[in-house]
Design a protein that fits this description.
The complex is a heterodimer of chains A (322) and B (467).
Chain A: H1 2-8, H2 18-23, H3 30-56, H4 62-69, H5 71-81, H6 86-110, H7 115-137, H8 145-150, E1 161-165, E2 171-173, H9 174-202, H10 204-209, H11 214-236, H12 240-251, H13 258-283, H14 287-311
Antiparallel strand pairs in A: 1-2
Helix pairs in contact in A: 3-9, 3-11, 3-12, 3-13, 4-6, 4-7, 5-6, 5-7, 6-7, 6-11, 9-11, 12-13, 12-14, 13-14
Chain B: H1 13-31, H2 37-44, H3 49-74, H4 79-99, H5 104-128, H6 133-153, H7 165-168, H8 176-195, H9 197-205, H10 207-212, H11 217-239, H12 241-256, H13 262-286, H14 292-310, H15 316-345, E1 352-353, H16 355-358, H17 362-370, E2 374-377, E3 381-384, H18 386-409, H19 418-424, H20 430-440, H21 459-465
Antiparallel strand pairs in B: 1-3, 2-3
Helix pairs in contact in B: 1-13, 1-14, 3-8, 3-11, 3-12, 3-13, 4-5, 4-6, 4-11, 4-12, 5-6, 5-11, 8-11, 11-12, 12-13, 12-14, 13-14, 15-18, 18-19, 18-20
The chains are: A mainly alpha (322), B mainly alpha (467).
Chain lengths: 322, 467
């Protein structure tokens, strides 16, 4: 045990300078921090709510799968349009996301394999295709695989400005505008179709009998998921899976009804974003990873509390067993 | 253990070998665009030192991943490969910190520890929360992966270079030590699966029974997790952590498309894994700018696609053909039935009939003629043969008997049973009919008052019974 601690102590953890970590981001670097936090929240909240539905449908891993399989879409779109702008990248990734969904459905519908195997086959093959294309055709361009893997939230404030201005903060960075549009669209769709999503998640047979087409709802959800993953890709990379799952997984310790679950998940998404950005400032590591880590800590604390409460015989409330 | 290794049961070994060779052919063709002939010869002759060094290790990797992936798929734990492949990242960083060198041994041990830890944590989450398997795996995957990224970022300066080999893999650099490691891992899997085959079989299909029968279900589960983690860890230097997940699932999934018996699937998955390894090594050696990991997984993916379409048992083509065949048989039987009704209307005074009165086409008659059901008589007329009459009587009997069963036993109204009988008449087998006859007390007439033909009826006996 002691040796393990000694080994971990070899990590070069920067000195915790309260001024630098907690205050400077909101004073000296405020103009950058605001955009980073705003971006993290605009991605985190829709992801958290979407994640709740994914978990309800036992498809929590779909986010991770789609975030891997958009790679060939990005590369092919680049090879066609020779442009790394937002529009071609989004288009390519969205097509790839939909292809993934269709392939998974196709394999499960027409063979004996179950969803998990179909998902595993599809995303690994598509990711391999993407890496193959990068290696072979796009090696010399700036399709930075690391950026796809980890994302670069820190670059949001430095991104191309959009036409919009936000008072004293100057022009709004383009990614923030895109993320805001995505957030509004996603939240709007979830609000309108929440009943359909719930009914098809819990009882597909009943849904069919009242005229809701489960298949259409499924494809719609996956299409929205692809758009969300693509929007998040540049900033948080593969860690979009963390934004999708962790807030909802934490919230379910405290909530059993969908409304409360959504509310708490949104709150946890925001707190993880804030904590993560400070953590990233302290450790000087990719903010996306720090946000995921903060979300993980939140989950761990909630889990520990629920186990402890149950150990003391507290029923209901926190962490009800079920 | 006395189980037969190669698939039997109506399918000869040679046919299976044929399918394998066919799949390999598909992969070769798909690689033709990027391969030059000279290099292909070099590869086959093992002239290149890199190939000689890499090939054994990669083949063992394919074998190991194929076996373990089969077991994962049987338990619907496929995405565990995904979780593991992300969860080893912090272990790699910790292993580096342990020795402060990039010594592979330390990195592998670190990765093994966090890999096993991740599957333990997943188990704890499942045991103590309401989260389902997919959510628990996602939580563990993302948190471990994020921790790994942060740890790598915090490593002392100048030590990060080279660690990304584990993310993307580099099979060309497999050295003798790594090959030995891959061999040990593969041998361990083979021995454990051989020894514990019954246990893994029960674990995959009925863990509840296993527990009741006193099988160490938990121990077997941990053993499986350990082997899978070991496979991921020793493979990651060759193909990179993310693509190991692909090698775990694809050969196994492909093999499940050929058989439903675990032992056959295991053998086949091992063979397919090795085949994908050879093809992947070949293509990445022969083509330019083709990294090993992606090429291996793509080969496996193409193989899966081929099997998905063409598998003799569960392939899409087979399914389409059998749907088509069934459709044709239904149309033939309906044709015979129409003829029977016409003959019945004449009191079975003869076997001859015209196309018009039965509403049948010339093509249908030709198709029936090929099967010896009808024969052409003079001047465009046709005649049922003896076997044709027997077949027609059988279909009509099925139809009327089913109508009777539905009205008498299932409480259907008389005018609601025809459509159901139209479908069932093609599906009822001889033993169903005997059972129905017994249940209904060997009836003479259907609900609409028409006579139900008996088995062995000929046109003469029918005419005699027809008043």
């Amino acid at each position: 045990m002691n040796e393990m601690i000694a080994v971990m102590a070899r990590l070069e953890v920067p000195w915790f300078d309260a001024e630098e970590v907690l205050i400077a981001p909101w004073t000296r670097y405020a103009d950058a921090t605001v955009w980073m936090v705003l971006m993290a929240v605009l991605l985190g909240v829709p992801c958290a709510l979407l994640g709740n539905y994914l978990m309800l449908r036992r498809m929590a891993l779909a986010g991770d799968a789609i975030s891997h399989s958009v790679l060939p879409g990005l590369v092919i779109s680049y090879l066609i349009f020779r442009d790394l702008g937002t529009l071609p990248m989004m288009g390519g990734a969205m097509v790839a996301g939909l292809v993934t969904t269709v392939l998974i459905e196709f394999i499960t519908g027409r063979s004996r394999l179950k969803t998990d195997a179909a998902m595993g086959i599809t995303y690994t093959t598509l990711f391999a295709l993407g890496m193959f294309l990068v290696n072979r055709y796009a090696g010399r361009v700036h399709l930075d695989a690391d950026c796809v893997l980890f994302g670069e939230l820190e670059y949001v404030p430095l991104a191309e400005p959009s036409g919009l201005r936000a008072g004293g903060l100057g022009p709004v960075p383009m990614p923030v505008v895109v993320a805001a549009a995505m957030a509004v669209g996603t939240l709007g769709l979830l609000a309108v179709f929440s009943r359909w999503l719930l009914v098809t998640s819990f009882d597909a047979g009943f849904a069919r009998s009242v005229g809701i087409r489960a298949g259409a709802v499924h494809y719609g959800l996956m299409a929205v998921l692809s758009v969300v993953v693509v929007t998040a890709l540049e900033s948080v990379g593969l860690l979009v899976a963390a934004l999708l799952v962790l807030p909802g997984a934490t919230a379910q310790f405290f909530a059993r009804r969908m409304g409360r679950l959504h509310g708490l998940a949104a709150v946890f998404a925001v707190t993880a974003s804030l904590a993560g950005i400070h953590l990233g400032a302290w450790l000087n590591c990719p903010s996306a990873a720090a946000i995921a880590l903060a979300g993980g800590v939140q989950f761990g604390v909630a889990w520990g509390v629920s186990v402890w409460m149950r150990g003391r015989g507290v029923e209901g409330g926190v962490g009800g067993a079920g | 253990m006395g189980w037969r290794v190669l698939p039997g049961g109506g399918m000869s070994v040679w046919r299976w070998v044929g399918w394998l060779v066919g799949l390999m052919g598909v992969m070769v063709l798909s690689g033709c665009g990027v391969v030059s002939g000279e290099r292909a010869v070099d590869f086959v002759m093992l002239r290149d030192g890199h190939v000689r060094a890499a090939l054994p290790g990669v083949v063992l990797l394919g074998l190991n991943c194929g076996l373990l992936g089969t077991l994962l798929i049987a338990r619907r734990l496929t995405m565990l490969g995904d979780t593991l492949s992300h969860a080893v990242l912090p272990g790699i960083a910790a292993g580096f910190l342990w020795t402060m060198t990039k010594h592979p041994g330390a990195l592998l041990i670190g990765a093994l520890v966090t890999g096993v830890l991740s599957s333990l944590v997943t188990g704890w989450i499942l045991g103590s929360t309401r989260l389902k398997a997919d959510a628990a795996q996602s939580v563990v995957l993302t948190v471990f992966f994020a921790a790994g990224i942060v740890m790598i970022k915090l490593l002392p300066d100048g030590s990060k270079a080279g660690l990304d080999r584990f993310l993307y893999g580099q099979a060309a650099a497999l050295d003798a030590g790594e090959t030995v490691l891959l061999a040990v891992a593969a041998a361990l899997s083979v021995v454990v699966i051989w020894w514990g085959y019954r246990g893994f079989l029960v674990l995959a299909f009925d863990p509840g029974y296993g527990r009741a029968a006193g099988l160490p279900v938990k121990g077997l589960h941990l053993l499986q997790m350990f082997l899978t983690t070991l496979a991921v860890v020793v493979s990651m230097q060759a193909v990179g952590v993310i693509l190991v997940a692909g090698l775990l699932v694809i050969p196994g999934a492909t093999a499940w498309l050929f058989s439903a018996r675990l032992h056959r699937v295991l053998v086949l998955a091992a063979l397919l894994g090795m085949a994908a390894a050879v093809m992947g090594t070949f293509l990445s050696f022969a083509g330019d700018g083709m990294a090993m990991g992606p090429t291996l997984v793509l080969c496996a993916g193409v193989m899966f696609g081929g099997a998905f379409l063409l598998s003799p048992r569960y392939g899409m083509a087979r399914r389409m053909v059998s749907v088509m065949r069934h459709g044709r048989r239904v149309r033939r039987e309906d044709g015979l039935k129409a003829v029977y009704r016409v003959l019945e209307g004449r009191g079975f005074s003869g076997a001859g009939f015209g196309l018009e009165e039965c509403g049948q086409s010339e093509g249908m008659m030709r198709s029936l003629e090929r099967r010896g059901m009808v024969r052409a008589v003079a001047a465009g007329g046709w005649e049922l043969t003896e076997s044709g009459f027997g077949e027609a009587a059988r279909v009509v009997r099925n139809h009327r008997l089913w109508e009777l069963y539905l009205t008498r036993r299932a409480g259907f109204a008389e005018d609601h049973v025809h459509d159901a009988a139209e479908e069932m008449e093609h599906l009822l087998a001889e033993e169903n009919i005997e059972h129905l006859m017994g249940v209904l007390g060997h009836p003479e007439r259907d609900p609409h008052g028409r006579r139900i033909p008996r088995s062995g009826d000929t046109i003469e006996t029918s005419a005699a019974r027809h008043e």
